[in-house]
Each structure stands twice: as C-alpha cells, then as structure tokens.
Please model this.
Amino acid sequence: MKENTRPDLHDADGGWPSRMSAWLDGRLDEQGMARLDAELRSSPAARQAFRDWIELDVLLNDVAARVDADATAAASAAATLSVAPASVLRPRPTRVGWIVASTGVAAALAAVLWWRNEPPANADGVPGGCAVVGRLVDVAVAGTSLQPGASLGPGLIRLDRGLAQLEFFSGATLWVEGEAEVEIISASEARLRSGRVRAHVPPAARGFVVHAPGARLVDLGTAFGLNVAADGSAAVRVFDGEVIVHPTGGTDTRLGSGDSLDVDGSGHTLAGRAPASFLAVDEVTTAVAGHGRERRAAWSRWFDEARRDPRLVALYRFDPPQPPRLEGLVRNAAEPAQRRRDGAAVGVTWTAGRWPGSDAVAFRRAGGRVRVAIDGEYRAMSLACWTRVDAVDRSYNSLFLTDGYDPGEPHWQIFADGSLMFSIGYPLDGERAGRHNQIYHSRPVFTADTLGEWHHVAVTYDGSSGEVAQYFDGRLVGREVSPLHAPGRPIRLGPAEIGNWGLPTPGHRHPLRSLNGAIDEFAIYHAVLAPEEIVKMFEAGRVE
Amino acid sequence: MTGDDTDLTPQGAASGDDGPDAHALFVRLLLAHESRVRGFIRGLVPTWNDVDEVLQQASLVAWQKFAAFDPHTDFGRWLMVIARFEALKHRRRAARGPRCFSHETWELLASEADPASHDGNRIARRRAALEECLAGLAEHRRQALLEAHMPGVRIGALARRLGQREQAFYKTIQRLRATLLDCMRRRLSAEATT
Model:
C-alpha cells in the first residue's frame, strides 16, 4: 500500500471494511491481522480510517445500549411509566459508577454528586428501577435526596419528615409519612420498618406485598393503611378491598373493608389494642393542597417583584386568551408595560401548568409557536423559562430562535443528545451563517429521568467576555468561553419564536425545530444574571 | 470549542486535598470525559473488556495523582496520557494475542489520536449524523445492526436467532457499518453550516 492513500476497499480478502469490522469484533485471523497492521503502519490515511471505525463502534454501542435500556425499561415498567418515549440518542448510562467505587471515594461523594438521583444501573449499565418518586410535600430525607420523577431502585429510604408518594412500576402507590423507613424491594414489594404508610393498589397491581417486622401483607386490591411502631409492632387497617396478612408467628388472616389487625414484632397477633391512627385520605390531600398553596404564594411574591426588574426585556406568562379568543395574545408581563413586545400564540394548545389551575403553552403540533418581536441592541443577555420537555425527537428542539440566523442573533435550543445548546453567530462579510457561530453545549440534561416533568432552564451570555453559562434547575450545567468570540459585538433579537423556528435559513438541513413539550414563564433580560439569581428564580418557581 | 469541564470551579482541585470538593470535581471530570477516553483506549487494545480494565486502572492512577492536575488544563488530555501508559502496561502484561498490533503500529496509533478531535460539539455532530444515517436504513437492517452492538451479544447466536447463516449475516453487518461510515462522511462534509 502506498503512503497516504486510502486503504484498499476491494482487495481479495474482502477489503478494508471487512478487516476493520473483523478486528473490532475479534474475528480477524492472523493473516488479516498482519495485513491490517502493515496498512496502519504505512498509511496515515489508514490510521485516520481506523479512528473513524472505532468512533463508529463507540457510537453504535452507545445507541444500542440505549435502545436496549429503553426496551428493558419499557418491559419492566409496563404502562405505568409516565415518561414519554425518548429518542434513541439519550445519553448512555454511565459506567463511571464502578470507577467511583473502585477509587474508594464513593461514600464521601454521595453528598455532592449531581447524578445521585439517577436510577441504579445493573451489570449491563442499563438503568433499572422499581418505582418513581411522585409528589413530595415538605420532605427531608436522610442520606440521599428524593426528586419528583426520579426512578428508584431497590433500597432503603429514610424519610425524616414530610409526605412522599412512591409510585411502583407494578401500579401500586405508597404514601409515606415521615418519620419512616421504607425499603423498596421490587416493583411489587416493599418493606415498612417504621412509620405510617397508606397503600393504594389498583386491580393491575393485585398481589402487591408490604412487609412489616412481624407480618407479610398481600393486597388483593384497593387500599390499606399500615403503621409500624418503634417496638416493631404493626397495625393494619383495610380501608377498602381485601388484604391477606401472613403473621410470621401465626395463621393467615383475611381482612376485608373496615377490618384491622395488630401484630407484634415477632408475628403474634395482639388483641385489645387501642385503635391506631392511620394515614387518612384527607391528611394526604390537605397536606398536598396546603403545600401547593404555600409554594404558589411564594412564587406570586417573587413574580410581582421580578416583573419590575429593570433588566427585563420581556416576561411572558402564557395565560390562555380570554373568551371569545379571537386572537392568541401572549402578554408581556414586564412592568412598566411594553405592549409592543406582546407575543402571539399560533397553533398551540393550553395545558396544565406547574401549579394546579395554572396554565402553560404546549407545542405539540409542528406548527405551534409563540411569535414575538423584540426591538433593541444588547451587550448581554439572559434567557430563562420553565419547560416540560416530553421528548427530544428532533436534531434541534427550539426553546427560543430568532427568525433566520442573522449576525448577532442568539439561538437557544435542546440538542439531540439532550444538552442545552446556545449559539450566536457573527458570519464574516459575504459568508453564509454557520462557520463562525459561537456554539455552547451544556452537558445532557433532558434524559429519561427528566422528560415529562417541569424543569427550569436558563442561559446567560456576556457579550464582552464571550462567556456562556447554562443552568438546569438552578444548577450550573455548562460554562464556557467560545474561541470564536470577539468582544463588543451587539446582540439582536428582532422577530423570533418561542418553541419553534419561524423562518429557517433557506435550504437549511434542519428546518423543523418545534419543541415537543410545554413552556411556562419565559423571561428575557439584557444582563447577565448571577448564579444566585438563577437559583432564586428556580427556588421561587418550583412546585415541590 | 473547549472541553466541557469549564463549568467547574478550579479551587477544589488546586487545593489538592482529599476533601469532598476534590472528589466531586474528579468524578465530574471523569464523567465528562469518559466517553472520549474510552474511544481513545479502544484503538489501543483488542476488546471492550480490555478497554474497561485499562480505563479503570487509569482512573485509579488519575485519582491518586489528582492533586498534581492543573484544573486550567484539559482533563481529558491529561487522562489520556495516563490511559496511554496504562494501555501500554496492559499490552505488555497480556500475552501477545493474535489481535495485538506490532509495537511500531501501536505507537503510531497512540500518538496520533488527536485529543482535540474529541471535543463535545464534534461528538454531538457525529452522533446527530449517525442518527440520521441510521434512520435512513431499512428498519430490519437497523435493528439487526443495533442488536449486534448490544452489550454481550454474540453475532453467531444473533444470526441463528434471526434465522440466517452466520457468515452471510456477518457480511451484512460489515456492509452496514461501511455504509453508515460513508453516509456520515457525506453528511458531515455537507454540514458546513448549521
């Protein structure tokens, strides 16, 4: 083979592709190996091709692992997963877990790592899980933390206080009141070591098992309460339906609606005990509603202050238009009022917002969009919104895109890998947009665990330093200075869209960029917001 | 683009202590660069099992030396230097298997892997290109190829399950990979603008 030529694609042994493939799969014989070795040694082009093949192998393994994970998760989760199907290009489940374990720092890290709520991976690095975290009211957890929507694998949860809803993949729901210790065993089995729980078991989850220190409870459908006291004694009451209690030291008892039973820690039935106080429906609903009201009031106070921020360019809240709905007006809520920056909703639907009774704008159809026109030239910019991304199903998924892509116009989107992507372009004279775009990616944030839930996203761009900082739920997920940055160039918005791309660059390969999801509260500032301000915005607006 | 580790405050590592900040920083950096370093090691050892072994060893060494790491430099590149050394040790340890390259070839491969070519944007672009090219394959072909790349899958067993002769099936897989590479090359070269 000659120096610097491409490897021979069609020689007698099936050619380079065949050799490369066989090497990757460990199927290359000695003769083929000698030949490959010689090719690589003599030709830089062959070595480049070799690297391309390896990269393909890495990428394909990533994609395949994810498809595999999706299939496994779908099979085990049955129909109860509220997570929308994601694109095949979600980030690969990481294999760093064992590295952390092997470096012996796992324990020290537990408190600070950002992936602590990700589902545990099994031997194949595939996310597994038994349950997802539902609603949380004023919860404090010992050791780790709980996040709504996070998957939970087998393990112990120590709730110091508050009320937590655990939705098992089998379909059963446990409401747990702190202080309590609950161990998740599988998608259809849990153990209460102490505390009060209320189990709801629909027909699909019949056979759900809850262990208490001295007994095993098998639910044949509907609802029961279980209290386990510090001495290990357990009290059961069936609210509705039927539960079979298997005390470790006695005979099975079948409890029907309204029946209760007390069992001590070693499994002996206790008679004549005072009726226990079980976790009642109205305790749960009152706590949830009260918590929601408090959070919303806190947010209202923040919003009234935030709308008067002099750095605001515009702030959209997405209240649905009032009847008779002749126009899709989206008010700019910033004060003093600037009506010229009001937006227009086109082809969108209104959906439930973060708060009970509040609204958000949903972009489900490819044509859905909120059009705005923002005048002015700026030196810095911050964009922030709440978004519920249902799926990352395009190469680029719009949060905020200016029409076209003219010099100084920012584009804010979610990239195919789930990362937040902010870019701003300053093409040279006579050149098409693209080559000199400053592009910034966060780490991937929209993954199976975060899709279908409300999250706060924000980006700040400093036109003088070229630094972009990206935030997800108040946490910094990317900070970078683009090497293409030149100071002092203005930022312009002009006509732009939230949730879509109004005027794709002609001939662009990715014209479709509609968001599959919903947006609530979109804010544009002409300044770089400090990290503490982003945190404050997130804390004020979060529901749980 | 610079690496994706610039979201990290350097103080944690600069102190070089074993406090939780250094731990957190280390693991975050490791996560951010894992993929890139795995790709690098893959070119230097014969199997994915070897990759995991070398990466694990390299990570251990990196952690032990983490106090000496300058947080203003590229962690991925630093880890690759360590990984290269560990891969060499691994190569010496492992019996000269039939799939080991000659020393000369190995040195060329190890020294030419350009760390800059592994930056996040480039990988993201390649992923996007791969996704599009995969979407262009017939459904049954795409599925067969992805199944062949799932963890622990043996091509022979997969061929039998799909009712095909192993040799013929393997040829198909080889061709699909070559097709994808061509497709990605075309897409990426057409992608002068985005």
